[in-house]
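User: Reviewer 2 asked us to show a designed sequence for the structure in our supplementary figure. I'm pasting the structure tokens here. Could you produce the per-position amino acids so we can include them in the response letter?
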């Protein structure tokens, strides 16, 4: 299984069933540390959509009611290789797993308000594409075009997907 990319790099790979197992193992670790402070934890993003290619980075969303309670677990999370990276995106905290010395990311863990807009968007996006293979393949085509243009610019790649993401989220 290929898992992980250097920060900033875009490289899509065919779906790998082992991504699901990696997500399950990480979710178990998160549940054991966060306990009742996490209401729900789910595998999201393109690695959770078997019909399409994805960057080999597992995205996980953790639904919480209180960001401050999660922050109390930072030391315990760090001890198992889960590092707090800040809140670059409004209304969420980001944690990462990977090889920090080589700046390689294997997991992105998004902490959001459970049942809030961000939570609903992450879950709806995954579920919609898993239920609508034609739309999933259209999304993959956009991703492949962006990958060919922005292989060394993940910000431009991510920004380039936004119109398609918005179209999918409008199908709620």
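Assistant: Here is a per-position design you can include in the supplement:
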């Amino acid at each position: 299984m290929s898992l992980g990319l250097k920060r900033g790099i875009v490289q899509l790979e065919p779906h790998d069933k082992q991504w699901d197992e990696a997500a399950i193992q990480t979710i178990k670790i998160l549940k054991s540390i966060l306990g009742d402070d996490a209401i729900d934890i789910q595998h999201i993003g393109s690695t959770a959509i078997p019909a399409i290619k994805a960057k080999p980075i597992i995205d996980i969303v953790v639904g919480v009611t209180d960001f401050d309670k999660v922050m109390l677990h930072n030391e315990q999370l760090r001890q198992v290789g889960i590092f707090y990276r800040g809140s670059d995106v409004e209304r969420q905290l980001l944690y990462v797993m990977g090889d920090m010395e080589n700046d390689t990311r294997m997991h992105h863990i998004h902490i959001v308000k459970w049942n809030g807009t961000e939570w609903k968007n992450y879950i709806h996006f995954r579920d919609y594409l898993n239920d609508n293979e034609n739309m999933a393949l259209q999304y993959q085509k956009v991703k492949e075009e962006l990958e060919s243009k922005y292989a060394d610019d993940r910000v431009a790649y991510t920004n380039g997907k936004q119109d398609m993401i918005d179209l999918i989220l409008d199908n709620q």
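For the response letter, you might also mention the following. Residues 17-34 form the longest helix (18 residues). The mean pLDDT is 95.
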